[in-house]
Amino acid sequence: MNYIGSKFKLSSWIQDEIKQVVGDDLSDKIFCDIFAGTGIVGRTFKKDVKQVISNDLEHYSYVLNKNYIENHIEIKNKEKYIEELNNLPLIDNGFIYQNYCMGSGSQRQYFSDENGKKIDTIRIKIKEWKENNKINSNLYYFLLASLLESADKVANTASVYGAFLKHIKKPASKELILQPAHFIENDNSHQVFNMDSNELIKEISGDILYLDPPYNQRQYSSNYHILNTITQYDNFVPKGKTGLREYNRSNYCKKGEVHNSFEDLIKNAKFKYIFLSYNNEGLMSKSDVEKIMKKYGEYSLETKEYQRFKADKTENRNHKADRTYEYLHILKKDDV
Questions:
Q1: Which terminus of the chain has a lower count of CB atoms within 10 Å, N or C?
Q2: Three-state SS for 245?
Q3: Average pLDDT over the chain, rounded to whole?
């Protein structure tokens, strides 16, 4: 998924830097990704560590990580379910079509009419199978994650769901084909949570804590509200032109709250090694972070230049102003 703040391109660098500090052998370590997003960093470490603890307040993130992180044992015949879902007769009275497709009269165009109907058809069938105990929790999250990513590929947006496009773009005109969201299989069990990070940190412990909070005032709940609607598939009255649902407002997106929330998280963390990804355009300055982390142990910093996120892939990405700096703030915490 094309995701704001995604660490897909930085995951190898992050992994190398963490191993430089902690050591190459992480097989006895518990790794926590507490602002997980799409789970790229947790997936990177899943095969190397004893356990991954993954968390995010957004429900779509919870679904993705229940599949990619918590699922670790082969699910038999899962392709059969994918095939069946791809071949269902379409319904036209589902929530996505009725509220987010132009043909229903909603005046919103997040998906083509056919793709909106297919999202509804598949989502309702997955829900029915779960309620009738035809599928277990592991298969449920695998299928739901598969739907989420497949729907995202045909969304009629400029990557985020803050607005839809007036005309159906070429990728959005293609038929939605449900593709399997394959996960890494291994022998270790993993945990996934859907909680406020500052509350969860009081309940868990481990060895490596990786932090990738929101950098600025953009709220993930509003930018990806359609994904939450697909995963939760609940009844509500969409608001405004973009059909928003009620959404979370993170303290990490508030200039007046972020410093206190961040220090509270560090103070309560029962992890020896803490790594914070944050860029040079964040609400907290580099010196703000350093000042807070130094209170709790030995601090250091690594920096990497990279290309910023852009919704419009056709824009020139080579312009100097399009580049930014990712900071990896490192803390070896005292008295853990």
A1: C
A2: coil
A3: 94
Are the C-beta atoms of 279 and 215 separated by less than 8 Å?
A: yes
Residue 308 has pLDDT above 70, yes or no: no
Type of residue numbered 87:
N
CA distance 57 to 38: 12
Query: Nearest Cα to 71, choosing from 182, 150, 227?
Result: 182
pTM confidence score:
0.94
At residue 217, the pLDDT reads 86
Identify which has the larger pLDDT, 317 or 31.
31
Q: What is the pLDDT confidence band of residue 317, given thresholds at 50, 70 and 90?
A: very low
Structural domains of the chain, with CATH:
1-72+185-214+250-336 (3.40.50.150), 75-182+221-249 (no CATH)
Q: What are the backbone angles phi and psi of residue 276, rounded to the nearest 5°? A: -115, 120
Residue 128: φ, ψ to 5°? -65, -45
Question: Token match 């009255």: residue?
Answer: 237
State the CB neighbour count (10 A cutoff) for residue 294: 11
